[in-house]
Amino acid sequence: MAIASRASFLLLLLITLSSISGNTNQAEARHLLESGLPEIPKPEIPLPQIPALPKPELPALPKPELPTLPKPELPAVPKPELPTLPKPELPKLEKAELPPLPKPEIPELPKPELPELPKPELPELPKPEIPELPKPELPTLPKPELPKLPELPKFPELPKPTLPGPKSP
């Protein structure tokens, strides 16, 4: 338990210190950008000469030849013959006969008689009278007259070109 709390404390301390030092780095970087840098002459360093090495050659290896193996042949397996089994004979069972059941007799019930109900008499209602309405008259509309279209100018007929017929041999 103590190790976990110590580790979390160290992590918190590291984060705090890095945020403090981050602000100072920004200020220093701004100061370096504002001031001019002196020009430093580039030193001339002679490049060392590397001697050329001969190309290594690998000796030719003989190609190994694989020996040819004879094709393995499987011996013919004889087919096993299944022995024939005799069919089992089941003993014959006699059919069980049930004794006949007597038919139950249902007694006849007398038909119930319903008394006749008197028919109710309905009063006759007078026929309602509907007044006749006058037929509406439709106003006559004048026939619309279409204006005559202007005649199109007549163009002279152009001669139709004749096409050569198919050549027969």
From TrEMBL:
Signal peptide span: 1-22
Keyword Signal belongs to the record: yes
Pro residues bias (residue ranges): 43-88, 156-169
UniProt-recorded name of the protein: Uncharacterized protein
Species assigned in the record: Sesamum alatum
Recorded superkingdom: Eukaryota
Biased composition (Basic and acidic residues): 105-135
UniProt keyword terms in alphabetical order: Signal
Region listing for Disordered, in residue ranges: 38-169
The keyword Cell membrane appears for this protein: no
